[in-house]
Amino acid sequence: MSPIITIADLSKTYATGFEALKHVTLEIESGEIFALLGPNGAGKTTLISIVCGLVNASQGRVTVGGHDIVRNYRAARKMIGLVPQELTTDAFESVWATVNLSRGLFGKRRDPALVEDILRRLSLWDKKDSKIITLSGGMKRRVMIAKALAHEPQILFLDEPTAGVDVELRRDMWNLVRKLRSDGVTIILTTHYIDEAEEMADRIGVINRGELVLVEDKAELMRKLGKKQLTLQLLQPLDAIPGSLSSYGLELSDDGGELTYSYDTQAERTGITALLRDLADAEIRFRDLRTRQSSLEEIFVNLVSDAK
């Protein structure tokens, strides 16, 4: 299956000389949820803006569904729905009028049943006659998503879609995104919320200072870069870690009751067997142990730190 979006050697340098993107190459598969992670100013929004035709690239080529975004702009843009960070709607229009207008801008015929379905799925139906100015921030965000879906795009870009909304609304949006994916819509998501990517994404890309640091299947990323921690609950608290155990990089809890050992899941040897032997030699006994896999947030922080 050919990718639905192909980005090749894409760069963007602004008039100020700032390099927002540096030779980014990326393929997005049809029907996947792809999460793009990165700190503020990393280049996430610039990348999305170029693909959506809002910003011109300095170098490189992008195709959407086989359509070049420069030569075949209209065909490419019809395939895309965009939910930007900014809430850009006419404050004094109704929800119903706003969503219908968005559909008409793409040359689509009126379809009240479809618009009603979108509004119902976004829990906006009871607000259809309300003016945008009267809605909460979370509701306005839902209207932006409804606008993006009104012309039935095959690809949906969500640029920080749950920024500033409450936890319940975030989970509602996650469920909506999953439903859209099951309907065949390809989702590209940028987010500051690591748990959002961990919860929903099939693949994850990390961008930092305009460079694509890594692109990996989420499960494979967790497997390859995740570390595990072995925590031992001691029978007797320790005042300090014995010198004979210094090579293990152990961490002692504040109360002296727990020892934590971090190890690489991909290493040929984890060192656990040797650690347990040396603990016994040091006459340190434990009553229980537990392991914990490092989170995607920890992996992300490490990746960005390594790229600096």
Commentary on this structure:
There is one protein chain. The mean pLDDT is 87. The protein is elongated and about 80 Å long. 33% of the residues lie in helices and 28% in strands. Helix 3 packs parallel to helix 5 (137-149). The chain contains 10 helices and 14 strands. It has 2 domains: 5-222, Rossmann fold (3-Layer(aba) Sandwich), CATH 3.40.50.300; 227-307, Alpha-Beta Plaits (2-Layer Sandwich), CATH 3.30.70. With 308 residues, the protein is α/β, with parallel strands linked by helices. The strands form 3 sheets. Strands 6-7-8-3-9-10 form a 6-stranded mixed β-sheet, sandwiched between helices. The protein has a 4-stranded antiparallel β-sheet with strand order 2-1-4-5. It has helices spanning 44-51, 73-78, 95-105, 112-121, 137-149, 167-182, 194-200, 218-225, 272-281, 296-307; strands at 5-13, 19-28, 33-37, 59-64, 67-68, 80-83, 155-159, 186-191, 203-208, 211-217, 227-234, 251-252, 258-264, 286-293. Strand 1 (5-13) and strand 2 (19-28) form a beta hairpin.
